[in-house]
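Incident log, entry 3
Record: Trypsin-like serine protease (335 residues)
Problem: checksum mismatch between cached and fresh output.
Input:
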Amino acid sequence: MHTLSILLALALPLTLALNEPRILGGQAALPGQYNATALVLVATSAKQTTVCGGTLISSRAVLTAAHCVQSLLGDNYEPEQFTVGVGQLSSEGFNLTHPYFVDKTIAHPSYSADIVSNDIGLILLNSSVPANVSTPMKIIKGYDWGARLVATGYGQTTNQKGSLATQLMAVELRLGNVTHCKSLNPHWKQDTQMCTDGTVGRDTCNADSGGPLMGQYNDAGDWGLVGVTSYGEEGKASSGGNMCGTEGGAGFYTYAAYYADWIAQNAGLERDKILVVNSTTVHPNATLMAEASEGSTVLAVASESLTSAAAAGPASGIAAVVAAAVHIAMCLALA
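Fresh output:
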């Protein structure tokens, strides 16, 4: 087992411009697609901002990773340190067109940074996100190993130093089995976490923390949230250096449905209205496909690559959320 679990938040100095797409092995999401994905910025100091992702689960609640709302010392960041963007995609860089500010943040009380468990948190906004900007995502219960899912985020697309994306990226991933997950992290718990199968070159990476791992929960193709991006483990054959997408490695995700009661209670929501049971009849090894429909924007996910489907309707997307431009400093939070 690799000795370091890589928490996938990323700290950035506020200096240079943003110019590269991110997430390993994926493609840019189409305008308006996966618009429940949030971009979360935390001003951790006067010169540094931590970048994470999140998922809008109600008009005022964003689900994210606990390590995105809490420092390594165990202190919650203050609400005024946060800026959140949802539902507006910009290819011109992270210019703040509609910021959402934060009323309160909550990390799970049993979160452990030492073994990276219960890595889930909430960001409660001080204003509502309009329905025409973003559609909140339901939480899915009932996915098993081998299932094909999609992760989105603004994290790295390579293991080289670079800049954050100016648009949302999406990648297809497959869930790993118990043996694979346990071999990489003996602290892994089957009821609260899931991991990917270690497909080379496909992964979430630095700055994707807290973002969604999504699946379809019915045969109509409706999308919901399965996991929250948490950390990564390198494969045994890796040369080290905190690499993402290595052979035999895996991304690890907090299983959101396990925490449905906690989420509902702390977000002021009804559990039955945010949780759905997976009822898809598609075999888990089948190619995950979303069919285009009038007035919608979708992505077709092939077994080996993401392919863009034809889309109609107005362009919108995920928010660019930094008033100043930023440049990556590879300052990783390590468990």
